[in-house]
Each structure stands twice: as C-alpha cells, then as structure tokens.
C-alpha cells in the first residue's frame, strides 16, 4: 500500500538536505549530507534512500542551488531560505523570537514576534562567521570537524582570536600555535570569534530577544552553542531537526500550497535524464563570471552569475 508524501529539499553551498513528510505534516524521514561540489549526485543518493512505498505528490526546494536543481527534477514550489526556515519554525517553535542560522557560506538571522517574521538579515560577504571557515580550520589542524566543539568545551581559558575576516583570524590562530597556546584554547577562541562576528555583523542593530533557536549544521558544534549562550546570556535551543529545517519548511509550504494540484516532480530516479554541463565566461561586465549551463532532457538552466543575468 502506497503512502502519499511531500518532499522538501534544501540544496546549499556545501550540503544537501531532504525531508519527507506525510500529508499531516509529520516528518517521516530527513537526510543531511555534504555535497562535496556535486549536489545533483548527492541528491540522487539521498533519493535512493526513500522507500518505494512512498508516493510523492509534491516537491519544494530552497537553498542557493534551488533554481537549477528545481528545473532539472521538476518541483512545485521554489522559495528562499528565509521563507523556508520561517515555515518550519512557525510549526515547531511558534514562541521563538530570534532565529540564528549559520550555513556553509552564509549566515542569517530571523526576528519573530507573535509567530510572525518581522525582520531578517543575512551575511554573504565574509566566510569568517560560517561553517566553511570552521571546516577549513579543522582540516588545517588535522581535527575532525565533529570533534571541534568537544575540544573547545575542555578549555578553561578565554583567549582572543582576532580578526573579522578569514585571513586575519587564520593568521592569528597560527601565531598563537607558534606561541605555544593549547589547541583547545585556540579552538574556543575561534568559536568566540565566530559568534562575535555574527553578532557584530549579521545581528547588528537587531532586537535580540529570547527564546533563541540555533539552526544549521554549525548547531552540532557544542563550542559554538556555548559561545552563543555566553554572549547572549540566555539558553539557546537546538531543534531535533536543526540541520534539515529548511527542507522541512519547504515541504510544509508545499502542503499549504497544494490544493490537489498535480505534481511537476519527474520521479525519484532522474538519472534517466542525460545531464550535459558546459562552462562559459560572460563578458557583460568586468566581473567576467564563469557561467555553468546545464541541460537535462529538454530543460536548460544556468547558474554562476553574480548579477543573476542568466538565472
């Protein structure tokens, strides 16, 4: 017996998230995987984990790769990350007032009042306040990123890792290593630096009130959570589905929007569509963007332009 379900997808810069919900909005499955620069291949892998007994009657997508992947697989709804996260938080944490989201290459804040998003901001200028910077430093130190937070929690010292950009922060870390500081103290200092960058840049001028909810892959890092709690002087809530909230939110939005419409979804096995990729340089301005053209069957889409000319 088949079970009708909705799929929500969040394809970001470094990871792919998929959530499967039933028609009552209950989360049946959720997956989070790093894309390693191949979001389509990773999405194929995740789709293979969805049981054949599930009949997919609606699909929504968000994330930085939403437009081109949405065209290839055929989706019913495309929304930005702010809208997707707001949808999930409205259902699971309706009393939340400040939502902190730290992704692979950007950070966001959403301000809720009485369950309604009233303000938001995001930072895409510098990676010093994002997950990719933590990944980079974990790799440089030879420490699995999964252990980063645990190591920071062992530190009893408060040292400053200076710099509001990746170059200066990394340079200061190296200097402190050479000066003989312990790795646990440096990692704690780095965690504090990331949180300070977030609060000084993304959250600057915002009315920050509890309850605070932290989402995104960085929420798994205990060192970052502790740093936020120290600076905010309040408890920070980590949701059960902290790293797939965007995907869940998209599925919930599709449920609201559905109204018995037939889905555009081409099916879980989209490997039958021959995908061709071509790269060319746009000469429209001094940016000289490298544009990636993707053709899947009869569908053609582009991504890579800074101005959105080809999107």
Which key terms come to mind for this protein?
Nucleotidyltransferase, domain 5, about 300 residues, globular, 5-stranded mixed β-sheet, 3 domains, alpha/beta, 13 strands, 9 helices, about 25% strand
CATH topology of the largest domain: Nucleotidyltransferase, domain 5
CATH architecture descriptor text of the largest domain: 2-Layer Sandwich
> How much β-strand is present in the residues?
25-35%
Distance between the termini: 40 Å
CATH class of the largest domain: Alpha Beta
Neighbour order of strands in the largest sheet: 3-2-1-4-5
Largest sheet: 5 strands, mixed
Q: Pick out the low-confidence regions.
A: none
The outline comes out as globular
Number of strands: 13
Task: Report the average pLDDT across residues.
Answer: 86
Query: Mind telling me the CATH superfamily name of the largest domain?
Result: ATPase, nucleotide binding domain
Helical percentage: 25-40%
H/E element string? EEEHEHEHEEEHHHHEHEHEEE
The domain count comes to 3
